[in-house]
């Protein structure tokens, strides 16, 4: 009987010890040792219970149960703000940040970069974000001057595995075109420089592009070539389902030593947007004009979203060599030029 009692007590001690260890781990240890920022918004009057649900959904908690126990016994209040937290922070640290509204983690500003945009479209938004961060005027010209500084670009090439001397080739319009990842960037630092913000943009591209490193190698393309193709697909595609097929069409044309014949590359060469491209426009002398130069153009032409990068890696093989987008964005694919001409004649809308 005594042995049973001792055994039960021992089991209870082990369970209690394990529970205490798990609680301590859940509250005082981070979810991940690696840095991964996550933006969390605390609304006015929001309590710890709803915030714990947000943190759990964002992947910032090991145990919501342990988190609720901690907040119940510590009576923590939260201050409304937008916070930039990190997976390498413990729950206790995150709670302290949101309780004190620690200025180091409060988001003061944000920069939104959309997919399919060019450097010339991005630069004004970057200048505005820096102006707000620095409380002094930063112009578009200031931004572009840094992004075209050869010495600075060489330091970036040495820092990032995906940047090479390809961006310095004669004829490249904007060296960093296509290398900034499109997403919303939350900024809580003051007095940011163009270089500081450039690092944020390239770090984001590094995180996304690294997933496709092996796939790019299997395509036997350099990263520069991969981004160039992906940027064309980005601008040519309205619906996600078409991106893998259109990629396959372009690859078929390249294998056959045909011109890509992409209107979006002509538009980029002419610094314009729009659908209608005239015969005169198609004759523009530019290394970006895929009606005049076979193969891929000299460099990327726009920002590229992750879905497009994935579609290019996992492109769809087919016998198609042509495609035409109708007014509603749906695409007609053709195997021969005769079929393509018929599709254009019957469906041209511009």
Please give the radius of gyration in angstroms.
26 Å
First-to-last CA distance? 92 Å
Binned, the helix content reads 40-55%
Q: What is the residue-averaged pLDDT?
A: 90
Please report which band the strand proportion falls in: under 5%, 5-15%, 15-25%, 25-35%, 35-45% or over 45%.
5-15%
Major beta-sheet overview: 2 strands, antiparallel
Shape: elongated
SSE class: mainly alpha
Q: From N to C, what is the helix and strand string?
A: HEHHEHEHHHEHHHHHHEEH
What's the total count of β strands? Answer: 6
Distinct helical segment count? 14
Give the structure's gist in a few sentences.
The protein has 350 residues and is mostly helical.
Topology record:
Blueprint: H1 2-28, E1 37-42, H2 48-57, H3 64-74, E2 81-86, H4 91-100, E3 109-112, H5 119-134, H6 140-147, H7 150-159, E4 184-187, H8 194-209, H9 213-218, H10 223-236, H11 243-255, H12 263-269, H13 306-313, E5 322-325, E6 331-334, H14 337-347
Antiparallel strand pairs: 1-2, 3-4, 5-6
Task: Walk me through this protein's architecture.
Helices cover 48% and strands 8% of the residues. The protein is mainly α and 350 residues long. Strand 5 and strand 6 form a beta hairpin. Helix 1 crosses helix 3 (64-74). 32% of the residues are buried.
List the defining traits of the structure above:
350 residues
């Amino acid at each position: 009987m005594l042995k049973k009692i001792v055994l039960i007590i021992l089991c209870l001690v082990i369970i209690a010890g394990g529970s205490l260890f798990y609680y301590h781990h859940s509250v005082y240890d981070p979810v991940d040792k690696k840095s991964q920022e996550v933006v969390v918004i605390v609304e006015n009057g929001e309590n710890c219970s709803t915030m714990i649900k947000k943190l759990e959904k964002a992947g910032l908690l090991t145990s919501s149960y342990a988190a609720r126990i901690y907040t119940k016994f510590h009576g923590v209040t939260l201050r409304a703000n937008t916070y930039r937290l990190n997976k390498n922070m413990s729950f206790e640290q995150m709670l302290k940040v949101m309780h004190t509204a620690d200025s180091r983690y409060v988001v003061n500003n944000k920069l939104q970069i959309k997919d399919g945009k060019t450097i010339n479209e991005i630069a004004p938004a970057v200048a505005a974000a820096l102006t707000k961060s620095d409380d002094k005027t930063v112009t578009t010209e200031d931004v572009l001057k840094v992004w075209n500084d050869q010495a600075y670009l060489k330091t970036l090439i040495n820092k990032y595995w995906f940047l090479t001397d390809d961006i310095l080739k004669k004829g490249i319009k904007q060296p960093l075109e296509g290398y900034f990842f499109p997403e919303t960037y939350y900024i809580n630092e003051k007095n940011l420089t163009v270089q500081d913000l450039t690092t944020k943009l390239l770090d984001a591209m590094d995180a996304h592009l690294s997933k496709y490193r092996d796939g790019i190698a299997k395509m036997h393309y350099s990263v520069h070539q991969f981004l160039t193709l992906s940027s064309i697909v980005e601008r040519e595609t309205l619906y996600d389902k078409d991106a893998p097929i259109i990629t396959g069409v372009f690859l078929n044309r390249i294998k056959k030593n045909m011109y890509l014949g992409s209107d979006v590359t002509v538009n980029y060469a002419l610094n314009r947007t729009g659908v209608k491209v005239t015969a005169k426009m198609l004759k523009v002398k530019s290394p970006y004009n895929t009606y005049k130069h076979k193969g891929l153009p000299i460099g990327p032409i726009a920002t590229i979203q992750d879905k497009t990068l994935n579609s290019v890696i996992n492109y769809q093989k087919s016998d198609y060599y042509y495609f035409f987008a109708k007014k509603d964005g749906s695409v007609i694919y053709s195997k021969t030029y005769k079929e393509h001409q018929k599709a254009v004649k019957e469906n041209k809308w511009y």
